[in-house]
Amino acid sequence: MRRTAGRYRRSDTVAIMTVVLWLLVAPLSGWAAVRLFGLERGWVAVCAMAFTPYAAAASVVPLAIAVLARQWWPAGMAAAAAGVLCAAVLPRAVGRKEQGQGPVVRVLTANLLHGEADAEKILSLVREKQVDILAMQEYTPLAQKKLAAAGLPALLPHRTVDPLWEGIGSALYTRLPLDPEPSRINPDGYRNTRGTVRVPGGPEVLVESAHPSAPWSPYAMGAYVAGQANQPPATPDGPLRILLGDFNATLDHVTLRRLIRTGYRDAAGVVGRGLRTTWSGDRVRLPGVTLDHVLADRRIKVRAAEVHHLPASDHNAVYAELILPTEG
């Protein structure tokens, strides 16, 4: 009788372990399938995709437990999910600085959080990094006044700006000659200031401060999807393009991956800094995600990319050194 009870207890333990493992493996397997095939639909899925690097890190836990417990079916599913998620995420941490003979352009992008970001910190980065092109999002009349008082126009005299309230403003300041173009207007009114930068010894470059609408609620999904689609594709057989800004999307969102496939590369990912986070929430502190990017035409080489803390903003600033192809 005691032996029978012991067998029942062992059987019950195995059954419970199997159920627990499947409860751990199933969500990660679904996550991996959504990421692999770009199936995110609806607000919850879009928001969840931003945290894919955390899911990739977590995916090894049920795999290890399943292997130790000799639960081979859950182990197989866990291995598949971990493989998909890690294959999507890890290449961003592996890269190298590229070299080239063309002119170097130093770019910086910063979301100012409704103009509240520390103007002196921005000026410090511009000076320290010898920035040639500065893109700013959520650029307001207040930000314009603060930056002017701090001396930004003297450092970057060429500009095209849309100083607007409610976080929809945008600006481009450059050290190089700039031919402004009318701002691109995204759904919900968010502006992309843009223009053609003339680089001595190099080709002209179309530069844009990108800021499509965020998926901040289920009701904002229409503007989010339309805003992502409104970003300009690369022109690999035409002029060079650089998009830099707050894309409100990570490299795990299918919308941004589609844009990149037109002929861009993410500068931070090229040099192995693609897992550095740039946003962690303004009202509620969340695990950091990477919403801010420098997307450069694939003909442009990336010499460096860095993420810098920006006081009084909920975003970090992103800096990159880009090597343009030589003229002709």
Overall description:
This protein has 328 residues and is of the alpha+beta class. The protein folds into 2 domains: 2-92, no CATH class; 97-323, Deoxyribonuclease I, Chain A. Helices cover 38% and strands 23% of the residues. It contains 11 helices and 12 strands. It starts with a helix and ends in a 5-residue tail after the last strand.
List keywords for this structure.
six-stranded mixed beta sheet, 11 helices, Deoxyribonuclease I, Chain A, alpha+beta, 328 residues, elongated
Under the CATH scheme, the architecture of the largest domain is 4-Layer Sandwich
DSSP helix fraction: 25-40%
Low-confidence stretches: none
Shape: elongated
What is the H-and-E element order? Answer: HHHHHEHEHHEEEEEHEHEHEEE
What is the domain tally? 2
Which structural category fits the helices and strands? alpha+beta
The total of beta strands comes to: 12
